[in-house]
Design brief:
By secondary structure, the chain is mostly helical. It has six helices and no strands. It has one domain.
């Protein structure tokens, strides 16, 4: 093998490893938004996103039915507003908030995971939130 072929081989092997590591099974790919929802949202909003998760009895305010967000907004999913609510940017440090500040949580977890490895924390958080929002958009009632 020549040295010129080595980068192609490395790319092919790494692509195979990544796709295998992230696959849900043979011929299936991972739905990152769904995984994000199940890991961070379903406990309050429920697996069906209708606001009836197992933690609801312990909450002071009932979580909204996420399947109705577009319907309640003239048929348009308010992506920018949802992004801001999930990210929590601009939330007063000591103000009240019914929902966890997931942006901060993502930043902390990603920093723990990547440690000294170079990564872009803002891009990482943005990708996670956008994957989640894409999944929520698929849940909207028709």
């Amino acid at each position: 093998m020549t040295l010129r072929a080595l980068p192609c081989l490395i790319l092919a092997v790494s692509s195979t490893l990544v796709s295998t590591a992230w696959a849900d099974g043979p011929g299936k790919t991972t739905d990152f938004g769904k995984r994000e929802f199940e890991a961070n949202c379903a406990s309050c909003h429920g697996m069906d996103a209708k606001g009836k998760g197992p933690l609801v009895p312990f909450l002071t305010k009932s979580p909204p039915d996420l399947t109705q967000l577009a319907r309640q907004n003239n048929g348009v999913l308010p992506m920018a507003r949802l992004y801001d609510v999930i990210d929590g940017a601009g939330v007063p440090a000591h103000g009240s908030r019914d929902m966890p500040v997931w942006g901060r949580d993502y930043r902390i977890k990603d920093a723990e995971y990547y440690q000294e490895a170079p990564y872009n924390p803002e891009a990482q958080v943005r990708a996670r939130i956008l994957a989640l929002l894409e999944y929520v958009s698929r849940l909207q009632a028709k």
